[in-house]
Amino acid sequence: MKRWGAMLIFCSQAVLAACPALLNYTVPGLMGGQINLCQYADRPLLVVNTASHCGFTPQFKQLQSLYQTYGQRGLMVVGFPSNDFFQELDSDKEIGAFCEANYGVTFPMAVKGHVRGADAQPFFKALIKATDDAPVWNFHKYLILPGASKVVSIGTRTKPDDPEVVNAFLPYLKPAESVKN
């Protein structure tokens, strides 16, 4: 019996150790539930601070397209709505309805929160520390490579489907022929 207890403790510690500190966060989901970022540790993760009423809001279309095109091969996209730049809707319910109705967003979205400054969500504080680059506007992107081995900060003006972004995560995806439709 002691042997099984020791094995269970060892396995639990191994699972906990498998989650890089950068991804060791659980955030409330926009449409309910929780988003455990550890579950994305083994794949490229594109994190984006979003806003519904911004000149860059059409980037939702490209984000959704990336998610649809590369999601089965391992890419994960997670949106983090923020009103830090005064361009987001008031409630999470309104944000969710807007994203779904206007852009068909199906990738996970967190509840509205801060992405910069002293009030920034802990996950964004960790991203800023990892890159030494805080969002200066909506649709700032962070590409986290598997195992959080590298974090790339991508400015607002760079579109999510820009070859620079796509070429950065493509090597970490499963081959297209290995994915069944």
From TrEMBL:
Enumerate the GO terms in the molecular function aspect: peroxidase activity
Which CDD domains does the annotation name?
Answer: GSH_Peroxidase (cd00340)
Q: Which residues form the active site?
A: 54
Q: What is this protein called?
A: Glutathione peroxidase
Asked if the record carries the keyword Signal, the reply is yes
Recorded family membership: Belongs to the glutathione peroxidase family.
- Keywords in UniProt for this one? Oxidoreductase, Peroxidase, Signal
- InterPro entries (UniProt xref): Glutathione_peroxidase (IPR000889), GPX_AS (IPR029759), Thioredoxin-like_sf (IPR036249)
**Signal peptide positions (record):** 1-17
Q: Output the superkingdom of the source species.
A: Bacteria
> What's any GO biological process attached to this entry?
cellular response to oxidative stress
